[in-house]
Write a structure and sequence with these properties.
The chain is an alpha+beta fold and 236 residues long. Helices cover 57% and strands 14% of the residues. It has 8 helices and 5 strands. It has helices at 7-22, 27-41, 66-78, 82-88, 109-117, 150-197, 201-215, 219-229; strands at 47-54, 57-61, 95-98, 122-129, 134-142. Strands 2-1-5-4-3 form a 5-stranded antiparallel beta sheet, sandwiched between helices. It is elongated. The termini are far apart. 32% of the residues are buried.
Length: 236
């Protein structure tokens, strides 16, 4: 941006985005709002996505365009790239930027050459983190070489900071909902066993737990089976 970022306007947009992120009803909705916000708030950003590493396996979340998926898969195949590095960084750099893909990139030579052929002109990667978590990388792409300035990088850091908090909050909320749902399911199954076999609450839970351990089946899955069939296994 030749005239730089209008930080007063940007601040208002960020405040609006933060409220919007926290109002989303699911983790997926939150992630989609994060990547959409990147294309809206960061000048020159044509596409965005979130890259998560599970060991050596790459997962792309909430991509705004197929280009994002293709880039992540390319980085995974090559084992290199700014977003790949950002997502697996355990310290040090938290921002990675390729200013111009038409120039030689000695740090990521194999990835950069093919990325340029895919139509990527410049890109940035931001580690998503809260105080005690590292959650992957928010990646921004432009078809134009030299699209991202230092001001854009600063804007991306601010966006990624808000995004990481919203992402973490959404995951925590989803985990709590799953835990409550599991507790309710187990409670219903215990009630069935208690009524059918005249067991105490403690005895019914012990029966569920033993079956789970002996058959290597998750406790919730055992409880689901009891709720659906009234017994541990279907009749032959």
């Amino acid at each position: 941006m030749e005239d730089g970022v209008d930080w007063a306007r940007f601040g208002k947009q960020m405040a609006s985005m933060a409220r919007d992120l926290l109002a989303q009803s699911s983790v997926d909705d939150t992630l989609e709002r994060i990547t959409a916000s990147a294309t809206e708030l960061v000048e020159g950003c044509d596409a965005a996505g979130i890259l998560i590493l599970h060991g050596s396996r790459v997962e792309t979340l909430a991509p705004t365009h197929q280009l994002v998926v293709d880039s992540d898969e390319l980085q995974a195949r090559k084992g290199e790239g700014p977003c790949f590095d950002a997502a697996r960084s355990l310290g040090g750099e938290r921002v990675f930027r390729i200013y111009d893909f038409t120039r030689e990139q000695p740090r990521w030579p194999s990835y950069a050459a093919e990325a340029r052929a895919m139509g990527i002109g410049s890109m940035m990667g931001f580690l998503l983190f809260t105080e005690d978590e590292e959650l992957g990388a928010l990646n921004l792409y432009s078809a134009r070489p030299g699209a991202f300035t230092e001001d854009d990088e600063t804007a991306g850091v601010l966006l990624a900071s808000h995004a990481a908090v919203a992402f973490s909050s959404a995951r925590t909320h989803a985990q709590m909902e799953r835990a409550l749902s599991t507790r309710h399911t187990i409670g219903e199954a215990m009630g069935i066993l208690m009524g059918r076999h005249r067991l105490t609450e403690e005895e019914a839970f012990g029966v569920l737990r033993r079956y789970s351990q002996e058959n290597n089946i998750k406790l919730r899955d055992v409880a689901d089976r009891i709720r659906a069939q009234g017994q541990f296994a279907a009749e032959p």
